[in-house]
Structures are given as structure tokens and as C-alpha cells.
Amino acid sequence: MCGIVGYVGSEPAAHLLIEGLEKLSYRGYDSSGIATLHNRHFHRVRAKGKLEKLKEKLEGQENLATIGIAHTRWATHGMPTEANAHPHQNDKVSLVHNGIIENADSLKKMLLQQGYEFESETDTEVIAHLLHYHLTQGLNPQQALQKLQETLRGAYALGILFAQDLNRIYIMRHGSPLVVGRGETGHFIGSDALALGEWCQQFCYLENGDFGWIEQGRLSLWNEAGEPCERSFQHVSVVSENQSKEGYPYFMAKEIHEQPQVIRQTLSAYLDFETFGIKEDFAALKSQGYKRVQIVGCGTAFLAGRLGKYWLEGIAGLPTSVEIASEFRYCQKPIETDTLYLFISQSGETADTLAAHEIVKAVGAPTGAIVNVPHSTLDREVDLSLYTYAGAEIGVASTKAFTAQLCALYALSLCLAPDHKKLKEHFEVLKSLPGLVQQTVDRIEKEAPRIAMDLAKTEDMLFIGRHTLYPIALEGALKMKELSYVHAEGYGAGELKHGPIALIHAGFPTIALLDESALKEKTLSNVQEVQARGGPLYGLVSEGALTAEQEASFKDILYLPKTSEEVSPFLMTIAVQWLAYFTAMVRGNDIDQPRNLAKSVTVE
Ligand code: F6R
Predict the structure, then answer these.
(1) Could you confirm whether domain 441-589 is CATH 3.40.50.2000?
(2) What are the two backbone dihedrals, phi and then psi, of residue 424, each rounded to the nearest 5 degrees?
(3) Is-contact 411 281, C-beta < 8 A?
(4) Which of 74, 296, 566, 595 is a good FRET partner for 166, with 20 to 30 A between their CA atoms?
(5) Does the Cβ of 376 fall within 6 Å of ligand 1?
(6) Is 312 in the pocket of ligand 1 (CB under 6 A)?
């Protein structure tokens, strides 16, 4: 989603800003822009499309300004055009904004009455003109910001240049995250620390309502009440992860291949495979005596929770509910202090998940996160973080973060299980997991293109599964939609007869997920129902699960290594990831940055 970078210091700013934007580009964007300030004049360059377009425009321009702001925009208000790209400005103010201003329409009306003209359709331009208006009313920049804070509704992180203030970037935050980084040659701002890791190791995370400015060697802040406040810098070594594809054609392929290692790392953070014990930090959770678990997340993270529910109930015996964050935050569910509220998020910055967490926190119930990005907002706000050790995930479609979330959920279920003596079997099963995932990654990479060629020709498809394979059917459909732009639905196989079976016809493929579980025969009955209506069937099947006669129902089958019921959802995950990947490839789509999507969804 939108990204912000800003710099003030002793070096020319433009090239640092572009490098910062490149680091943020994984979040997804559709236009970009920068503005520098020199001799009271803004120099603004913006472009629609990829950063390359912006770089082409900047090529050959000498720009010695040592202060500037930059932005990658993911369209919310208005199309992805150059006119809508940030920074937005007038002769006094230039600014970049992440978030959504909910009362932009009424503010715009007021400004139009004051004679302001608008050249974009964005909510952000309203902020630029509102600040301009306050300056013309005699306020200084700091007063104008305080006034702004009282007026704006919604979420915002802002980086602002005032033409009258040559050496400061003004900043302000409510809802959307903003971080200040202290570098050797100056101060930076960023929508996340990842953008700044190359230059900074000391970071200060702004609290909600904070506003102030950065200068070359200084940060000055006021809190929501307008009182000066100190926020400390902390040492954060942003692992400057290799943002290269390492020879893979896409980050997604690299990240699918990283899964055996990610699984190994995440499991061994929590489980001791030598002693079959739970690691100590994690075991402390057990003494809390939770009666229930409530999982909250969005998208793929939510689906990880859907699978985790089976383990938390089956292994730990804890009733578990799972809710999408955008519903949970408004559903007025009673919050109970003997429930563990578990928020799952790769980025730790998803606006709905953060808002849902705030509601629980306000009541004082215990909160935990399964989160991939240390120091992210969610990580900083929850009582306890269970990290997933997936490393930076660059592909917009989540792959390795999902399997790492599954590992953390499985380990949590073991930790909360009433009788640890019965767990040995689970340890044995999990020990074999990285190796089996490795075999699956390699095998399905070779075989999925065959089926993807067929799937790419359709516009609709269905994924079905039962029990722990049901959430993977949902995840398969989600991956397929977002990458291939083919309409895909995921269903519990037993639900087919209650409506979706009406969709089945010769041009509508069904992908059935089948392993050697007690419910296999039941899923096979559903497969028969599809076959009887002429629907083409494809199978993702554990080796040995089908007889030759059963195989005959399928047009094609991808066989996964033979394994236990506990492990098969992991292997099926790999299969649905490759299927979506290759279907998207056949259709010529941008695999790492699918259209309309953002990696980090920081607006509601
Ligand atoms: C799908 C995908 C999204 C995210 C969702 C939540 O492949 O990546 O559905 O899972 O936007 O994001 P996080 O986990 O960062 O909260």
C-alpha cells in the first residue's frame, strides 16, 4: 500500500528518496512522486505506473536539495493518474500522505468556498490546501498542524514540507504508522523501517496523535494534547534482507522455495525436538489458564487462523473462534478476560487488525500476535508476540508467511495442550515436515504447469476440501483469484449440495483436495456429484489415497508425498500456491505485484 520516505540532512536528497521508494515498492503501488525544497521552491516530479517511469523523468536533472519527501501511491480516492499521485502541493505546502481522510468531502466544500482550486480527486490535496489556509490565517506551521489534527477524521501519516521552513520536514500520525530514523548524515521518515534500514539503525516510532518535525540532527514532537513529548529511539537492526530474486523469475517462486527452511526455523523457535518439550518463553503461556481462543486476521492470515482452529480445538481442547478483523472490529462481541485474543498478521500493520486489537486492549483482555515483522505496530501493541521466522516477504501474495503462521499455530496448540505426554507423536510428525515440504515444492513445481494450462483457460473454478483441507481450499481460491484474476471459490466439500453445485458444468473445473483422512470417502462422494454433472475434476491428492477406480473420476491429478493427516494441509498449501502461480504465469500476469493489490493494507 502507499509508502512514505523523507530525508533532511547534508546529502542531496533525491537519490536517497528514490532508493527508499524502491525498498517500499514491494507493498504495491500504482504511481509515485517526490518533492524537494530549495530556495523556498518545491521541485516536484510525479509519474503514473512503475518507479522506472519516475526515474526516467528524473534522469539528467541536477538536484542538490538536501531535504525532500517521496511517496508510492496505491489508489483509494481517484484513479491511478499522475495528477492524483503525491506529493500534493500549493505554493506554501507540499505533502505526502498514507491513510484515508473520512471528512475530506466536507473540508473540500469549505475550501472551495474559500476559493481554493483542486487539481486531483484525492483526499490528500484537501490537507495541503487546509494547511495553506491556516498559514494565510496567520498560524505558523506548528500551530497549523495542531489545528489540522483537531479537524481531520480518519487515518493519516503525513510528511510535510513548508516553503517557509527550509530545514524541516513536519510529521504527523494518527492510525497509519510513521517511523523516524536517525542516520549518519541526517534524519529520515518512513512508513516502515524497512525503507530506511540501509541508512539507520536507530528508530523512533510515533504514537497516535504525535506531530512535530525532523531537522538534520533533531526530532521535536508534541502529543495529541499539544504538549511537548519525548519519544525514545531504539536500536533496530532492520535485517537488510536480500531483496533480490536470487535467480528465481519472481519473488513468489523464491518464497515458495524458502518454505522448508522457514518451517524449520519457526518450529524450532518454539519446540525442542530433542526433548519433545515446549521452549520456555512460550510455555509461560500455558500457566495463563485460557478458557477460549479468539483469532482475528485478514485474508490469508485469517485463513491460517481457520486452520489453527482445528489444532487448538483438537489438540489443546480450547474452543476457538476465528473472525475477519474488518467484521470483528464492529461486531460488538463481548470481550472476555479468560479468552486469549490472537491477532495474526504478516506485516503487523494491517489497519483492520490493529483496530480490532485496540478494542480488545481497551477492555484489558490478554492479547497475543502471530506476526512476522518485529517492531511493527501490532508487535509493539500486543502483550505477547509469537514471531514467525519467514524473513521479509516481498511477493504481494502471501506464501511463506502463511506456512510460518501455521507452524506457530500448531506449536501454540501443543503448548496449550492439557497433557504434554501425549504430544510425542506430533513432534515426530512435525520433525518430518520440512523434508516433506521440500519434496512437495520440487515435485509440484514440475507438475503444476500441466494443470495450470487448463485452468488458465477458464474464468471460474471451485476448490473443495473437508476438515483441515477446507481452509486450504479457501486459501487455494484466494491465491488463484489474486494471482490469475480467475474467479475461484473455496467450499467445504459437504456444502456443495447446498447451492454451489448449481454452478457445475463442462467448462467449470473443480479442484478437490484429498488426503488419507477419515473424511476421504465423504469428499469422494462429493467428487462423484461433480462428475455426474459433467464438471471437469482435478485432484490434489496424497499418494496412495485413491484406488485406480477413484482416480478415473479425475481429468488430472497432482500427487503429493504420502503423509499423515496432520501434515497434509502444509503440503496442499504448497500445491495450491504453485497452481495459482503457474495459472497466473500462463495468463501473463504480474506475479509479484498483482493488479489492484497492496502488500501492507494500512487503510480500512
Ligand atoms: C493474500 C494476502 C492478504 C494478506 C492480508 C493480511 O495473499 O497476502 O490476504 O494476508 O492482507 O495481511 P497481514 O498478514 O499483513 O495482516
Answers:
(1) no
(2) -50, -45
(3) no
(4) 74
(5) no
(6) no
The residue ranges of the chain whose pLDDT is under 50 are none
Distance, CA 42 to ligand 1 centroid (Å)? 36
Rounded Cα–Cα distance for residues 474 and 569 (Å):
12
Instruction: Name the residue with the closest Cα to ligand 1, atom 11.
Output: 299
Q: Which residue CA neighbors atom 5 of ligand 1 most closely? A: 299
Q: Is the CB of 397 under 6 A from ligand 1?
A: yes
List, for residues 132-172, the tens digit of each pLDDT value: 999 999 999 999 999 999 999 998 999 999 999 999 999 99
* 108 part of the active site: no
Tell which atom from ligand 1 comes closest to the C-alpha of 399: 7
Q: Is the CB of 120 under 6 A from ligand 1?
A: no
Measured from the CB, is residue 347 less than 6 Å from ligand 1?
Answer: yes
Task: Annotate 100-137 with DSSP letters as a single string.
Answer: EETTHHHHHHHHHHTT---SSS-SHHHHHHHHHHHHHT
End-to-end CA separation in angstroms for the chain = 12
Ligand 1 atom nearest the C-alpha of 401 is 14
For the Cβ of 482 lying below 6 angstroms from any atom of ligand 1, the answer is: yes
- The number of beta carbons lying within 10 Å of the beta carbon of residue 524 is 18
Catalytic residue list contains 599: yes
On whether the 3-238 domain is CATH 3.60.20.10, my answer is yes
160 CA from centroid of ligand 1 (Å): 29
CA of 599 to the centre of ligand 1 (A): 7
For the chain, residues classed under CATH 3.60.20.10 are 3-238
Pocket test for ligand 1, best of 252, 346, 379, 478 (most atoms within 8 A of CB): 346
How many Cβ atoms from other residues are within 10 Å of residue 533's Cβ? Answer: 15
CATH architecture of 244-431: 3-Layer(aba) Sandwich (3.40)
| Cell 494534547 sits on residue | 225
Q: What is the pLDDT of residue 496?
A: 95
Q: Give the pairing of strands 88-89 and 93-101.
A: antiparallel
CB-based contact 30:80 (threshold 8 Å): yes
Task: Return d(Cα 3, Cα 22) in angstroms, integer.
Answer: 10
Q: How far is the CA of 144 from the centre of ligand 1 (A)?
A: 36
Ligand 1 centroid to 298 CA: how many Å?
6
Q: Say if residue 418 is preceded by a cis peptide, omega within 30 of 0.
A: no
How many separate helices (H) and strands (E) can be counted in the chain?
Answer: 19, 27
Burial class (CB in 10 A: 0-12, 13-18, 19+), 499: exposed
C-alpha cell at 311: 489444532
In the chain, where does the domain assigned CATH 3.40.50.10490 lie? 244-431, 441-589
Measured in Å, residue 150 CA sits from the centre of ligand 1 at 32
pLDDT tens for each residue of 270-306:
999 998 888 877 777 777 889 999 999 999 999 999 9
Q: CA-to-CA distance for 442 and 437, rounded, in angstroms?
A: 9
